[in-house]
Design brief:
- The structure is a single chain.
- By secondary structure, this protein is mainly β.
- The protein is built from one helix and eleven strands; from the N terminus they run βββββββαββββ.
- Strand 5 and strand 6 form a beta hairpin.
- The model has no long low-confidence stretch (mean pLDDT about 85).
């Protein structure tokens, strides 16, 4: 989903990293699954596809060691519950290795993740370039995002991308 500030959000699920600390997880946070969005300027509905290539994704921030794990895209320090240690592209998905913090909220969310109560995550960050394509899905036009920068990942209740990314989901 893209908001009025041209910031994209997507959602996925987590997998625990084998042989690591109990609070370290590896998960997909975005894919090339088409997501139906509305252009805030024109009101037009279209499907948005985030390209997952080294050329399309600016990984400078998300691989810098400071990219946060948030709750519901809250933009305050109290909403931060963890940090992304590493990001990489695999099988046309953006994956991250992350760990939860020690705050009460972070540990509460981690417990819900471990209990498979909270499974979904979402990314957000600016889109720098989006192109109209000749593709159509169910009569709806498709735009491809060919330049974007993930800034954070959030644990969310309802993800935009419901393709099987996030906590406890395969691939």
């Amino acid at each position: 989903m893209t908001d009025k500030n041209n910031v994209v959000t997507r959602a996925f699920q987590f997998d625990r990293v084998e042989g690591t600390q109990a609070d370290v997880y590896d998960l997909s946070v975005s894919s090339e699954t088409p997501v139906l969005v509305r252009d805030y300027n024109t009101g037009e509905l279209y499907y948005e596809i985030l390209e997952h290539t080294d050329q399309a994704i600016d990984m400078s921030w998300i691989n810098g060691g400071s990219a946060p794990i948030m709750v519901d895209h809250r933009r305050d320090s109290e909403g931060m519950i963890g940090v992304i240690d590493r990001a990489y592209i695999q099988d046309k998905k953006l994956r991250v290795t992350m760990r939860f913090g020690e705050s009460e909220l972070a540990q509460m969310i981690r417990k819900d993740v471990d209990a498979l109560v909270r499974k979904s995550v979402s990314i957000s960050g600016p889109i720098f370039k989006s192109v109209h394509t000749s593709e159509v899905i169910d009569g709806v036009p498709v735009r491809r995002v060919t330049s974007w920068k993930p800034l954070e990942t959030s644990v969310v209740s309802i993800p935009a991308d419901q393709s099987g990314v996030g906590f406890g989901r395969e691939n």
